[in-house]
From TrEMBL:
Keywords: Kinase, Phosphoprotein, Transferase, Two-component regulatory system. The lineage of its organism: Bacteria, Bacillati, Actinomycetota, Actinomycetes, Micrococcales. PROSITE patterns: HIS_KIN. Its EC number is 2.7.13.3. This is Sensor-like histidine kinase SenX3. Pfam families: HATPase_c (PF02518), HisKA (PF00512). It catalyses: ATP + protein L-histidine = ADP + protein N-phospho-L-histidine. It is found in: Cell membrane. Its main location: membrane. It comes from Garicola koreensis. The keyword Membrane does not apply.
Amino acid sequence: MGAEFTEMISAFNRMASELDETEHTRKRLLSDLAHEMRTPVATVDGYLEAMLDGVAGADPETLTMLREQTDRLKRLAEDVSLVSFAEEHRLSMETHVISVAELIGVAQGQAHSSYAAKEVTLQIAEDSGGAVLLGDRDRLSQVLTNLLDNALRHTGPGDQVTLRAGSDSATVFLSVEDTGHGVAPEHLPHLFERFYRVDTARDRAHGGSGIGLTIVRSIVEAHDGDVRAESRGPGHGTLFTVELPRHG
Ligand SMILES: Nc1ncnc2c1ncn2[C@@H]1O[C@H](COP(=O)(O)OP(=O)(O)OP(=O)(O)O)[C@@H](O)[C@H]1O
Ligand SMILES: [Mg+2]
């Protein structure tokens, strides 16, 4: 009886501390989200007020600005809901057999024009040896798109980004390496945290809300994989490596 009672108490305490942790995460998410929404909402509000006061007209420039801010809010809502679903292990996934070469091809096709426009070279090193993965095609594509998007954001004309694929008997390796800004060592462990940005002002000015890499990690983990970031420091580029179980 004594032992059973002790066991019950400890199970109860364990449950209580798990609930505490969930509650803490929820509170932080809500306050981060409120913080992220503040800037676009204030911008929209300011423009509308100027229009109502007759100071600004409904000219294309103003309307474009308003649309950009509402797009940002829309994306924020979508991103946060995706991450929340993933954290609760409720991410909907359509599972298919996907060839790594195809995944790389799709990512390259999507990134091609924005890279060309910024004069950043996108190099492809597809050496997966015909490996295939089991997973959700769109979500895995999003992993590469988010990494390529970040790499482009942190490079300039003349820089180079390499999208690589490789495999061994059990694992598929996908990586995105850039010759851009790099990341200082103290920031590296935090990059995948929700809403984490190295340079809040600069990164936000680029339209980033610091959730892209959280999505990357959520999707990779939902596929029983791993992702990590490495950099030799500011000015020395960054390397992101994704490892996924090989299916064939
Ligand atoms: N290739 C990279 N080079 C240098 N810093 C990077 C790179 N990728 C990400 N970072 C840093 O990590 C932060 C988090 O990246 P993440 O993709 O999560 O957010 P974001 O790009 O700022 O916004 P979002 O992806 O939500 O639009 C970035 O703000 C940036 O500071
Ligand atoms: Mg990003």
